[in-house]
């Protein structure tokens, strides 16, 4: 399955309550999407999330159902390491 980086912009500061996270994960499961992890900006209004999914459309569908933005979705294939080498994700 492909790996995607998703950039999200939130109008308000992100609050990630456990019941909200559980709901997002349930929707993701139903759409065949797996949330791996996210990075939050210091103001908690932007996230960069790594997902495993069959397609960008599956991520967009899960995001829409969860009421989340999905501003930019980019498929990623490799990691660039500090020594200049690349490695599969």
Quick structural overview:
By secondary structure, the chain is of the alpha+beta class. It has helices at 18-31, 56-66; strands spanning 2-9, 34-40, 46-53, 72-76, 78-80, 86-88.
Report on the architecture of this protein.
With 89 residues, the chain is of the alpha+beta class. The protein contains two helices and six strands, in the order βαββαβββ. The strands form two sheets. A four-stranded antiparallel beta sheet has the order 2-3-1-4. The protein has a two-stranded antiparallel sheet with strand order 5-6. α1 runs antiparallel to α2 (56-66).
Any descriptors?
single chain; 89 residues; alpha+beta; Alpha-Beta Plaits; four-stranded antiparallel β-sheet; two-stranded antiparallel ribbon; 6 strands; globular
């Amino acid at each position: 399955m492909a790996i995607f980086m998703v950039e999200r912009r939130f109008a308000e500061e992100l609050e990630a309550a456990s019941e909200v996270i559980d709901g997002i994960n349930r929707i993701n499961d139903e759409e065949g999407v797996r949330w791996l992890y996210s990075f939050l900006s210091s103001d908690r209004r932007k996230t960069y999330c790594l997902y495993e999914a069959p397609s960008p459309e599956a991520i967009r569908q899960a995001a829409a159902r969860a009421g989340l933005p999905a501003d930019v979705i980019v498929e990623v294939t490799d990691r660039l390491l500090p020594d200049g080498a690349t490695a599969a994700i």
